[in-house]
Amino acid sequence: MSVRETDARTARVDGVERLLESYRALPVASAVRFAKPTSNLFRPRAKADALP
């Protein structure tokens, strides 16, 4: 495994731990929301052409 792969894996594990800590810090009855007021995550998208 290269140093780059190890760094990426370490960064991912650290990120997951930070995310879990933030979820655990929320009160049980609170809602989890997007950080921004609206999201285009679920908007309809144009179909992309496949690459040859």
Domain tally: 1
Q: How many β-strand stretches?
A: 0
H/E topology pattern = H
Beta-strand level of the residues, as a percent range? under 5%
Helical content (DSSP H or I, runs of 4+): 40-55%
Question: Sheet with the most strands?
Answer: none
**Roughly what is the average pLDDT, rounded to an integer?**
81
Cα separation of the termini: 32 Å
Approximate shape: flat
Radius of gyration, CA atoms, in whole angstroms:
18 Å
Number of helices: 1
State the low-pLDDT regions, or none: none
User: Structural class from helices and strands?
Assistant: mainly alpha
Describe the structure.
- The protein is mainly α and 52 residues long.
- The chain has one domain (5-44).
- It has one helix and no strands.
- The mean pLDDT is 81.
